[in-house]
Task: structure prediction
Amino acid sequence: MTRLLLASASPARLQTLTAAGIDPLVRVSGVDEDAVLAAARERFGDLEPVDAVLVLAQAKAEDVARSLADGADEPDGSDGPDDAPPAELLVLGCDSMLELDGEVLGKPRDAHDARERWRAMRGRSGVLHTGHWLVDERTSSAEGGAGTGGTLGAVSSTVVRFADLSDAEIDAYVATGEPLAVAGAFTIDGLGGAFVTGIEGDHHGVVGLSLPLLRELLGEIGVTLPELWRDGTVPR
Result:
């Protein structure tokens, strides 16, 4: 049985997959994001926003894939301590950043940073980039399985239009703590949804995981999205 392993601690990404009929296993990567980006810049020079999110998504997916090869503890979401995790795994890593005026914004450093960002964002538009990287850890064809050994990725980019918030609204939103935990200091599926007046593109990409893009990546390795649906979603 093929299972998706999500290399992310994001509740929103997990909820997106669950609502789409997929119950992924979860294992959070241990990569140092600043170090990964610094190494990439040293190797390739300045990174465009789409490159930065793709580099981080790849680092997270491949870090988790290596942990599986090293025989680390089984991922969260397995059937229990007596059941080994499925051998046919597809590892998915994701990373999101907001681009505003050519600057890439990840999670705010603190509440002050979040307030300043919203004062710069209000009444304007930015682009939310989400990198996706898929690693095929299924058994290879030579051993009787369907695995390709593929490692591939792509980026979802969605224009986000922000409401013209008052200072009081910004202060109230930052005080909830929600914008401190997410890229760009906003959500579209939580309290911040009231402050997004429109989008151009895939709204799931703004949540942090584009389902249409995931479908395309799966297709590149010969997997259809319905193959990952939980039992009972469709007749077998």
Notes: Confidence is low (pLDDT under 50) at residues 78-84. The radius of gyration is 19 Å. The longest helix spans residues 49-69.
